[in-house]
């Protein structure tokens, strides 16, 4: 059941990377040594580099939905390097694109290197390559949040329950969580990082971060791909959040469902990525807000050329302004 007002909704399901944090700059900065290494990539624009990365990442996410995101980032870096080697005509020192668990292929490569007498140099090269892949996978703590995100989240939290649904792993997200709670830069984060770290063990299916002593988190609930077992644009994460909201009135409050309404009618998806968030939200019958970050050069085209969002703003601050205008008008 569609609504004409933002404030008819009770909770927001946020994408993080691309919407609240500068995913594109984080990826490009992390990829730069690799892009500089191979002639085929030196002519790429920012958009071309991100699209090449996104194509590999999307394939791996569909293939390995339970792989931790930091490991998936590392594997994406590895596969992208193999493709750049091929495009650049460099067949030397290949690292292979085997995934963890393909022990037969790894053993075969090792045996071949040993018998040829070139094992030492090949192993050193492979070790350096693997270090680069791992470092890229661990780069999320360096990704900045957008300057308007922190203040806008505080404003929106006065009117909605805020939920994170992100294609990330728990450990990597804690750094971004701290910045979104006390940032926008590390200079203003005063709490220990443990305050924004997923509890282990956790007594709930998802994390209720505001229950952590000392937490300044604006989020009522956090669900990562590690929690849901899938990556967006798969529907699983959205469906899990909707079911959780229905089952936990003590957390989400009275959703105020009128006759004929469902939980999805009270949920609002807020995201930058059209294919990752707006497409599945639309398919599930949810309304959504497109945060059309003007710096973004990727994920801003609907794959079928449709308009699947209900509202569009260029910043999160503009969304907060619109909500406060509605609230003022009602009162």
TrEMBL record:
Q: Which UniProt keywords apply?
A: Hydrolase
Which lineage?
A: Eukaryota, Fungi, Dikarya, Basidiomycota, Agaricomycotina
InterPro entries, from UniProt? HAD-like_sf (IPR036412), HAD_sf (IPR023214), S-2-haloacid_dehalogenase (IPR051540)
Q: Where is the composition biased (Low complexity)?
A: 111-127
Look up and give the organism this protein is from: Agrocybe pediades
Region Disordered: start and end of each range? 111-132
Q: What is this protein called?
A: Uncharacterized protein
One GO term in the molecular function aspect is:
hydrolase activity
């Amino acid at each position: 059941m569609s609504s004409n007002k933002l404030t008819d909704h009770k909770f927001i399901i946020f994408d993080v990377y691309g919407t609240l944090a500068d995913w594109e700059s984080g990826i490009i900065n992390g990829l730069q040594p690799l892009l500089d290494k191979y002639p085929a990539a030196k002519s790429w624009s920012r958009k071309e580099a991100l699209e090449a990365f996104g194509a590999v990442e999307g394939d791996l996410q569909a293939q390995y939905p339970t792989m931790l995101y930091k490991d998936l980032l590392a594997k994406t870096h590895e596969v992208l390097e193999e493709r750049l080697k091929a495009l650049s005509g460099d067949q030397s020192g290949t690292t292979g694109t085997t995934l963890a668990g393909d022990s037969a292929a790894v053993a075969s490569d090792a045996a071949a290197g040993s018998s040829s007498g070139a094992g030492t140099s090949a192993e050193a090269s492979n070790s350096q390559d693997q270090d680069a892949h791992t470092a890229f996978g661990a780069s999320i703590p360096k990704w900045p949040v957008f300057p308007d995100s922190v203040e806008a989240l505080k404003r929106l939290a006065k009117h909605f329950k805020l939920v994170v649904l992100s294609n990330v792993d728990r450990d990597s997200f804690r750094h971004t969580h701290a910045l979104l709670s006390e940032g926008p830069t590390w200079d203003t984060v005063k709490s220990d990082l443990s305050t924004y770290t997923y509890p282990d063990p956790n007594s709930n299916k998802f994390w209720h971060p505001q229950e952590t002593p000392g937490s300044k988190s604006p989020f009522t609930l956090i669900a990562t791909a590690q929690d849901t077992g899938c990556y967006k644009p798969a529907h699983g994460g959205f469906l899990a959040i909707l079911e959780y909201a229905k089952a936990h009135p003590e957390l989400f409050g009275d959703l105020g469902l009128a006759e004929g309404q469902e939980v999805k009618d009270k949920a609002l998806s807020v995201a930058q990525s059209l294919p990752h968030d707006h497409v599945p939200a639309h398919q599930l019958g949810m309304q959504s807000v497109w945060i059309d970050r003007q710096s973004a050069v990727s994920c801003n085209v609907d794959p079928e050329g449709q308009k699947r969002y209900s509202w569009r703003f260029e910043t999160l601050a503009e969304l907060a302004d619109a909500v406060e205008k509605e609230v003022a008008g009602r009162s």
